[in-house]
């Protein structure tokens, strides 16, 4: 009788301990999940806003974005040159990288022999593993002289006199300009873009492709009329995701943009971006309003990339949902 | 008949273009790695690692503070970042699956993976550098850790989801609590995948420069104090490339080579770990090449 009681007591003790740990573990893990998924982004936003409030009060939103003046001495700050530079270099990089990435994805999913697939995928992924400062170093020492002495004079020679677009190739080719920056950026985002596009291509059920082949379609027609239309939102997601990547790229751009706060009029003009300005001036900001203006810039960058990446995520999720059935 | 030839020509042209695109991607990889290897080895000497930098303008010297500092910052960031990322990832996979709220958080985490890294530097500057009053190594480690947390959380979640549901149910059938099931079944089954994610996370932060620029900053002297500015390979390369001296450029090439090799080796090790062949990578690679050929 007594023994039974003891056993029962022990048993309920073990049970109690187990369920106590159960609850503690759940709450503890849950807190960190909450932190990573919610508190952390909110905290970033709050800190950026808090640090930027001086500049927000002084310059407002529209004026800050409209003004091209960036003068630390006069304490007059406007973000137009940086925002424009960020957008133009990203846009050009996307335009250069998109066809390449789709081509690579087609090659990997449809054309490459089975033994070659892992090799080419790894090679492209290695491009993503190279630290961005290496792209900057390489671009600065190796690519810039070639662009300045060979590529850009050649482009200028061939295209400089064409009406309208000739303007884009005017100026003195220095290599440290919009064109070189966008080119290097495009190389950096190719792995991200082609990975997303490839993954969506692989989601297309083979039944769909086989039916098209059975109707006599060529390989290209299958890609063009079956694979691409059905993965459109995945491709769009990949494009936007890499836009987010390119927007926030700092080190490579810092070496190649020239850090010149002006709106570039030609592809051979030096310019600046939000990230370049931050990297170059953050440690030099000696007044509160200067630092605050820099935080204002980072807040813009954070918000833009947050919005773009959310759209990308939504598009990719939509595609996944469609094929999940 | 005519239409058929036309379609064949289009097919052939477009597919050749796609193959050319692949060649284009590879071309840049070889160019970048090739020039890095050539210049890096040309200027590399063992004194790069064990000598301190000379005063600016005086040739010679090495980058010992940068190597030591980089190692300390990256290690500390890993120690801080990995547990948080793991815990969040486990919760997302094991508890949050059925809650809409946590599924949304999981997607936000996915987005956080791609946040511009320089933002993290600015944020940490506000909370750890400004109040302390000067740059310090600790803030650099925190910035890198924050950068790493979402990466680890996302990969952990994905790896845990690969564990078959039956294994969980088998543990429940034996009367295990959920935490026991997670500890002894899920994590054990997914440990290789988790390790891969951790290594990839370390590889990612090891190459970062932007978050360190205004947190850990730079230091010409060897410094082991976390409360003082600490040098890192990436920030040093940044400063040296921008600097006027030719021997600085040479040292930047050599240091970049070491950094890149380190990061690439980590990425490759991660792949080998995932295939369970870490014990004998060479034999594994050989076998794989033979099998594929």
Task: Tell me what the structure shows.
The complex is a heterodimer of chains A (325) and B (293). Chain A is mainly α. Chain A has two domains: 1-43; 62-324, Orthogonal Bundle (MetI-like fold). Chain A contains twelve helices and two strands; from the N terminus they run H-H-E-E-H-H-H-H-H-H-H-H-H-H. Chain A has helices spanning 2-59, 62-66, 80-111, 117-129, 132-159, 178-203, 206-214, 219-230, 232-248, 251-256, 274-281, 288-324; strands at residues 70-71, 76-77. The longest helix of chain A has 58 residues, at 2-59. Chain A is flat, with a radius of gyration of 26 Å. Chain B has one domain (47-292): MetI-like (MetI-like fold). Helix content of chain B is 75%, strand content 0%. Chain B is globular. Chain B starts with a helix and ends with a helix. Chains A and B meet through helix 1, helix 3, helix 4, helix 5 and helix 6 of A and helix 1, helix 3, helix 4, helix 5 and helix 6 of B.
Kindly summarize this structure in a few lines.
The complex is a heterodimer of chains A (325) and B (293). Chain A has 325 residues and is mainly alpha-helical. Helix content of chain A is 77%, strand content 1%.
Spatial order of the strands in the main sheet of chain A? 1-2
Level of helix content of chain A?
Answer: over 70%
Reported by name, the CATH topology of chain B is MetI-like fold
β-sheet strand percentage of chain A: under 5%
CATH architecture of the largest domain in chain A: Orthogonal Bundle
Helix segment tally of chain A: 12
Percent of residues in beta strands of chain B: under 5%
Tell me, what is the CATH class of the largest domain in chain A? Mainly Alpha
Structural class of chain A: mainly alpha
- Provide the helix percentage of chain B: over 70%
Give the overall shape of chain A.
Answer: flat
Number of domains of chain B: 1
N to C succession of SSEs of chain B: HHHHHHHHHHHH
Mean pLDDT across all amino acids of chain B: 88
| Quantity of strands of chain A, as a count | 2
Radius of gyration of chain A: 26 Å
> How many β-strand runs of chain B?
0
């Amino acid at each position: 009788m007594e023994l039974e009681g003891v056993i029962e007591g022990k048993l309920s003790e073990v049970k109690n301990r187990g369920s106590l740990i159960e609850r503690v573990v759940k709450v503890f893990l849950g807190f960190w999940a909450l932190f990573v998924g919610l508190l952390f982004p909110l905290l970033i936003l709050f800190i950026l806003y808090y640090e930027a409030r001086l500049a927000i009060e002084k310059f407002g939103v529209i004026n800050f974005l409209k003004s091209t003046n960036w003068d630390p001495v006069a304490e007059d700050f406007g973000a137009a040159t940086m925002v424009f530079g960020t957008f133009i270099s990203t846009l050009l990089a996307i335009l250069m990288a998109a066809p390449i990435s789709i081509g690579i994805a087609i090659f990997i999913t449809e054309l490459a022999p089975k033994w070659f697939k892992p090799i080419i995928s790894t090679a492209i992924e290695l491009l993503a593993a190279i630290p961005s400062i290496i792209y900057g170093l390489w671009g600065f020492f190796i690519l810039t002289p070639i662009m300045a002495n060979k590529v850009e004079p050649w482009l200028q020679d061939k295209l400089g006199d064409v009406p309208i677009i000739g303007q884009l190739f005017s100026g003195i080719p220095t290599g440290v300009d919009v064109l070189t920056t966008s080119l290097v950026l495009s190389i950096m985002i190719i792995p991200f873009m082609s990975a997303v596009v490839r993954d969506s291509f692989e989601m297309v059920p083979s039944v769909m492709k086989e039916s098209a082949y059975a109707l006599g379609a060529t390989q290209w027609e299958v890609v063009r009329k079956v694979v691409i239309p059905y993965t459109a939102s995945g491709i769009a997601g990949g494009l936007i995701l890499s836009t987010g990547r390119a927007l926030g790229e700092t080190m490579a751009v810092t070496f190649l943009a020239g850090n010149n706060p002006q709106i570039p009029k030609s592809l051979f003009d030096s310019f600046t971006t939000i990230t370049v300005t931050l990297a170059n001036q953050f440690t030099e900001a000696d007044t509160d309003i200067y630092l605050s203006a820099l935080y204002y810039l980072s807040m813009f960058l954070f918000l833009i990339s947050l919005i773009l990446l959310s759209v990308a995520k939504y598009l990719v999720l939509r595609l996944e949902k469609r094929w999940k059935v | 008949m005519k239409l058929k030839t036309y379609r064949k020509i289009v097919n052939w042209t477009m597919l050749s273009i796609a193959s050319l695109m692949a060649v284009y991607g590879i071309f840049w990889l070889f160019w970048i790695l090739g020039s890095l290897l050539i210049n890096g080895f040309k200027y590399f000497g063992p004194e790069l690692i064990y000598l301190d930098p000379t005063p600016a303008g005086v040739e010679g010297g090495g980058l010992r503070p940068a190597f030591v500092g980089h190692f300390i910052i990256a290690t500390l960031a890993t120690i801080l970042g990995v547990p948080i990322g793991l815990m969040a990832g486990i919760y997302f996979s094991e508890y949050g699956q059925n809650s809409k709220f946590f599924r949304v958080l999981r997607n936000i985490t996915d987005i956080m993976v791609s946040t511009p890294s320089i933002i993290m530097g600015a944020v940490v500057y506000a909370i750890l550098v400004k109040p302390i009053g000067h740059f310090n190594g600790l803030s650099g480690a925190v910035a890198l850790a924050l950068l790493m947390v979402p990466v680890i959380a996302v990969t952990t979640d994905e790896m845990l989801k690969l564990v078959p549901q039956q294994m969980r149910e088998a543990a429940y059938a034996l009367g295990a609590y959920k935490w026991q099931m997670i500890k002894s079944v899920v994590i054990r089954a997914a440990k290789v995948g988790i390790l891969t994610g951790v290594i990839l996370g370390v590889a990612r932060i090891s190459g970062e420069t932007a978050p360190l620029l205004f947190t850990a900053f730079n230091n010409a002297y060897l410094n082991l104090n976390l409360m003082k500015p600490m040098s890192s390979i990436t920030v040093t390369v940044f400063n040296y490339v921008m600097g006027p001296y030719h021997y600085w450029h040479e040292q930047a090439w050599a240091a970049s080579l070491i950094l890149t090799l380190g990061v690439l080796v980590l990425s490759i090790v991660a792949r080998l770990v995932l295939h369970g062949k870490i014990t004998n990578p060479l034999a594994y690679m050989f076998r794989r090449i033979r099998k594929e050929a």
